[in-house]
Amino acid sequence: SSGINAEWPLRPGSGGFFCFTRLNIMDRTVRGRQPFQFGEFVGMTNGEIYNHKQLEKDYDIHPRGSSDCELIPELFSKVGKDLPKLLDGMFATAVTNTVTGEVFITRDHIGIIPLYWGTDDDDRLYFASEMKCLVGVCSRIELFPPRTYYFGPPKMGQLKTWYPMNWTPAPMEPSIEPLVLDRIYNAMRNAVAKMIPCDSPNGFLLSGGLDSSLVAAFARQILGPDHELHTFTIGLENAPDFAFAREVAKHIGSIHHEFTYTVQEGIDVIPQVIAKIETYNVTTVRSSTPQYLLAKKIQSWGFKMVMSGEGADESWAGYLYFHYAPNDEELHQEMLDKLADLHYYDCLRTNKSMLASGVETRVPFLDPELLEVAMTIPVGMKHPKYVTRNGRPIEKGILRRACDRNNLLPESVLWRQKEQFSDSVGYGWIDGLKDHCAALGMSELQWYKSVYDRCGYEVSTVPQNHTKTVACSTPRGVSWMPEGTAIGASARNVIGVHQSVAK
Questions:
Q1: Taking the model in full, what pTM does it have?
Q2: Is 405 exposed, middle or buried (0-12, 13-18, 19+ CB in 10 A)?
Q3: Is 422 helix (H, G, I), strand (E, B) or coil?
Q4: The pLDDT value given to residue 472
Q5: How far apart are CA 488 and CA 503, in angstroms?
Q6: Mean pLDDT across the chain, nearest whole number?
Q7: What is the layout of strands, in order, in the sheet containing 125-128?
Q8: Range scoring the smallest mean pLDDT among 159-173, 356-370, 398-412, 459-473
Q9: What does the DSSP 8-state code read for residue 47?
Q10: pLDDT digits 0-9 by tens, 209-233
């Protein structure tokens, strides 16, 4: 409660409140303070609504300030439960009618923004962006699923889906590739462009891999050569990322910031990281730790918003295990499942590990229009075998080929092999974690789970069926692997594909 910036009583006599803590990214004046009210409707939103100006025009809404979220209660008064279908952005949103007591709660299409809800012993409803707000208050806590909404009296009632993930890929046809390449390029550029506006300084996470490099490169193209553009990289000393990130920074003319950490510094903050990210998933903890440390550095430079490359591997078949996908049908279903569960993993990681220091992360690869392109082009175009480089199949080849124009990136980065973030910050990071846990006499999972349990968090909010994985695959992906493949999240486990083990 000490961090609450605004508190709003709801229906008289209900005892209900909306409470909000501002990050101060859009409309940093007092007029941008949430919750917002329109007549009997009170609403608050965590996230960003990129098309708010167009919606204000289309629905004759005249906000007092320039916040992208101020339109929400008035828009809801006009469109009701269709609200999330109109919003282009990342959001967890709640609107209540102070006369009827009804509440509307919804979450964005992928789950970029976290949301939990629960009830206490008296069946009173609570919801929050962080589970820790509900611990000790609620006797029942659940994750509020992405792509859904609840509309009704203030209780945990039936959820309805507003964003069905039912994409149908186009068939492969002769001479279709030029059209596909243009669709990809234009959708990628538009996704970055819509997420750039910000009332505070913005920067770009730059690992030196394809995804984050494309985001930063398109931003340079959009903003022009004279715009001050900052990029940020973290890793162990001599990490693989550093050299590639420097090359990209030089190519796009960014002001580049590099930060190093040691294995021990990472291990020391893992209890803090788990408390912040509210999961004990091994891959997520590994990757969240350097990102948590990086966010502290970024915040100290005065940045409140960065852009990143999350979501590309799930929608463009970027993980190395996709090399072993046996057919188009399984490849497409694997990508659907990865996207459906992304809110448990990369979305959770990048949102919570960065916002722990007050830094918001925007993710162009999860833009709905870009996702529509990615998931409706012929599936075979996304199989690593579709494009070869130096005689070897290359993951995300169609994306690389589409962006191989206008001098966007150096070839060495445009065609760089996929690395897991927890690998690319330095292979010694995972090895060091394993050694540390061995000295404790437990596995990584056991250590992380023990920390998680001490926080009092709800176990059911962490998926239990993905402990068997190869390079972040689902169990289906594991079944594709050659005999003898080691189980584990590191890309180095993909034998015959990762550069460290390829023959």
A1: 0.92
A2: exposed
A3: helix
A4: 83
A5: 20
A6: 90
A7: 125-128, 116-119, 140-143
A8: 459-473
A9: E
A10: 999 999 999 999 999 999 999 999 9
> Cα(77)–Cα(155) distance, rounded to whole angstroms?
21
Contact yes or no for 490/316 (Cβ under 8 A): no
- Please give the structure tokens belonging to residue 193: 């462009």
- What's the start-to-end Cα distance of the chain, in Å? 57
CA dist 441 and 87 (Å) reads 49
- As a whole number of angstroms, the distance between CA 459 and CA 318 comes to 30
When computed from its CA atoms, the radius of gyration of the chain, rounded to whole angstroms, is 22
CA distance 234 to 260: 6
Three-class DSSP labels, 54-107:
HHHHHCCCCCCCCCCCCCHHHHHHHHHHHHHHHCCEEEEEEEEECCCCCEEEEE
> What is the layout of strands, in order, in the sheet containing 103-107?
36-38, 41-49, 89-97, 103-107, 148-152, 160-161
Q: In the block, which residue shows the tokens 């591997």? A: 313
Angle CA(374)–CA(379)–CA(381) in degrees, nearest 5?
85
Average pLDDT, integer, range 173-202:
92
What pLDDT, on a 0 to 100 scale, did the predictor assign at position 2? 41
Identity at 443, one-letter amino acid code? S
Burial bucket for residue 404 (CB in 10 Å: 0-12, 13-18, 19+): middle
Residue 448 CA to residue 442 CA, distance in Å, equals 10
Residue with tokens 């509900």: 134
pLDDT digits (tens, 9 = 90+) for 435-456: 999 999 999 999 999 999 999 9
Contact 379, 331 (CB under 8 A): yes
Q: What is the DSSP string of 287-343?
A: HHHHHHHHHHHHHHTT--EEE--TTHHHHTT-SGGGGG--SHHHHHHHHHHHHHTGG
**Strand 103-107 relative to strand 148-152, pairing:** antiparallel
Local structure of residue 470 (DSSP, 8 states) = B
The model's pLDDT over 268-299, given as tens digits with 9 standing for 90+, comes to 999 999 999 999 999 999 999 999 999 999 99
The 10s digit of each residue's pLDDT in 339-382 is 999 999 999 999 999 999 999 999 999 999 999 999 999 999 99
Side-chain-side CA neighbours of residue 469 (13 Å): 22
503 pLDDT above the threshold of 70: no
Contact in structure between 452 and 277 (CB atoms under 8 Å): no
d(CA 18, CA 500): 52
Closest Cα to residue 419, out of 188, 208, 206? 208
Nearest to 277 by CA among 130, 456, 402: 130
**Interval 391-420: pLDDT, tens:** 999 999 999 999 999 999 999 999 998 775
Dump strand ranges (E) for 100-161: 103-107, 116-119, 125-128, 140-143, 148-152, 160-161
